[in-house]
Amino acid sequence: MHNGATNYIAGKWLQSVTNETFTSVNPADTSQVLGLFARSGAADVALAVDAANAAFPAWRATPPPARGKIINRMGEILVANKEDLARQMSREMGKVLVEARGDVQEAIDMAAYIGTFGRLPDGYTVGSERPEVACFARRVPVGVVGMLTPWNFPVAIPAWKMFPALVAGNTVVFKPSEETPGVAVAFVQMLAQAGVPEGVVNLITGLGSEVGSALVEAPQVAVISFTGSTNTGRKIMERCATQLRRVSCEMGGKNAIIVLDDADLDLAVKGAIWSAFGTTGQRCTAASRLIVHRNVRQEFEQRLLREISELVVGSPSDESVDVGPVINRRQLEQIHSYVKRGIESGATLLCGGTILTGLPHANGCFYAPTVLGSVDNEMEIAQAEIFGPVTVIMEIEDFDDAVRIANGTQYGLSLSVYTRSNSRAFKAIDLLDAGLVYVNLPTSGAEIQLPFGGTRNTGNGHREAGFDAADYCTEWKSCYINYSESSDLVRAQIDV
After folding, report:
1. From CA 436, how far away is CA 455, in angstroms rounded?
2. Residues of 45-77 as b/e, b for ≥16 C-beta within 10 angstroms?
3. Which residues pair with 371 in a beta bridge?
4. With respect to CATH, is domain 2-251+459-478 assigned 3.40.605.10?
5. How many H-runs (helices) and E-runs (strands) does the chain carry?
């Protein structure tokens, strides 16, 4: 058992002020305790924020290419440690190994991409309306960035948030999910190895209600970056609004795959299986709605159920396993309660719907891959983010019906359409209200060179990754330089 009951503050691993700890367990076998970690409090957060604030001037003054070089080095370290980190992730949060490796690869790709930004333009020049005046605008860092990250992508999401912030010249206080503290400790150890200076990245472990709240309230934090539930994100935005503090929130989703009557059904079924049951449905981009045209619904359903029957549920350390555990017993019971209420409201159970209790599932948090049919858009099961291996089939009449139902939730993260028609595909791209739209592809599968985020109650307008990845933690500064040797005052916005 690993004892990681320390925080990383100002380049040192320090005992928490509280002297309290919490455990991290293996969701595939909850009797296996993986480590003890610091259950920190507000005083620990204050120390970390002070350290980040003190380190900011020197880090901001570090040339951008030098900052980018450190992130590139971090990418090399991640490559060297990819397998070990993936296996640690698989044990701590239950992601099957092939997906855990992909999680680390996402961070590797982000390091390679964002590291180059240290040598890219950080603004633009324009002509002035006044003679002998130069005008340009550039991005500048905001200061201390507080990061609150989830457990389902414990390497990729911190990389999405942190690498752009660091290359832009900000410093960081990082609060990971209490479900994956071990992976966060390993990630920060690698950053230190890459050469991130003392105080530039600080790690505080603990509970969201204690550490997360304190970080949101800390007056020296310039911006909060949060990924998690819509309810929590709304509370964070409310607190930040009262303090006039910037906040970037990436929140819930109720994503859908539309299968039209001209779709390649083999391809659509493969996309549905991956979108619904990849990461055991614990993705913000998971497809928990399959919106299928009535002409192909029965055939699609039969093919889907046949493929699901071949999925192997078990320990994520087994390379033959397709679906691992859900994160904890509380989530397991919540998933099951959604399914039971769905059936009570009139949905038909097509497969699954059970907590798996026999060997080899006895000590873990395993739920059978589940599909519900006869679902209409007013049911809770069609509206709520379940965050588990559960999806529903909803029958539609035509293209317009499909778009209406796909857009008919509070969320707008990821929507997909399967069709052989270019006309329908481009109309769907125009009409679907989501930050990500896929054609003949699953709802899960974002690439780091495009912006990631959603509309409506999925996000608050900011995006992660892509060319503008540092927008959330930088400010525009417009500059005017009079290089004339004349003593005459030259004014702008004055009619001559």
Report:
1. 9
2. bbbbbbbbbebbeebeeeeeeebbbbbbbbbeb
3. 351, 391
4. yes
5. 13, 24
Question: Which H or E element spans position 423?
Answer: helix 422-431
Q: What is the pTM of this model?
A: 0.96
Cα 108 to Cα 188: distance, rounded to the nearest angstrom: 14
Contact 358, 250 (CB under 8 A): no
> Whole-angstrom Cα distance, residue 29 to residue 206?
22
For residue 373, report the phi and psi dihedrals to the nearest 5 degrees. -115, 180
Q: Are strands 414-418 and 255-259 parallel, antiparallel or unpaired?
A: parallel
User: What are the structural domain ranges in the chain?
Assistant: 2-251+459-478, 255-439
Q: What is the pLDDT of residue 493?
A: 81
- Peptide linkage before 360 cis (omega within 30 of 0): yes
Terminal Cα-to-Cα distance of the chain (whole angstroms): 77
Selecting among 99, 210, 240, 284, the annotated active-site residue is 284
Q: By the 8 A CB rule, do 254 and 409 touch?
A: yes
Tokens for 219, please give them.
Answer: 């007056």
DSSP symbols for 115-158: HGGGGS--EEEE--SSTTEEEEEEEEE-SEEEEE--SSSTTHHH
- The residues with which 29 forms a beta bridge, in sequence order, are 26
Q: Catalytic residue among 250, 301, 385, 464, which?
A: 250
Confidence class for position 121, pLDDT limits 50, 70, 90: very high
**What average pLDDT does range 349-370 have in this prediction?**
96
Determine the CATH number of domain 255-439.
3.40.309.10
Tokens of 336: 């099951």
395 noted as active-site residue: no
- E strand residue ranges, 389-469: 390-396, 411-412, 414-418, 436-439, 455-456
> 427, 399 in Cβ contact below 8 A?
yes
Instruction: Give the residue ranges of DSSP H helices in 309-374.
Output: 329-344
> 381-406 pLDDT, tens per residue?
999 999 999 999 999 999 999 999 99
Q: How far apart are CA 411 and CA 396, in angstroms?
A: 20
Could you report the per-residue pLDDT of 423-448, keeping only the tens digit for each? Answer: 999 999 999 999 999 999 999 999 99
Of the candidates 95, 245, 209, the residue with the CA atom closest to the CA atom of residue 157: 95
Residue 385 designated active-site: no
How confident is the model over 152-165, as a mean pLDDT? 98
- Three-class DSSP labels, 211-270: HHHHHHHCCCEEEEEEECCHHHHHHHHHHHHHCCCEEEEECCCCEEEEECCCCCHHHHHH
- What pLDDT is attached to residue 59? 98
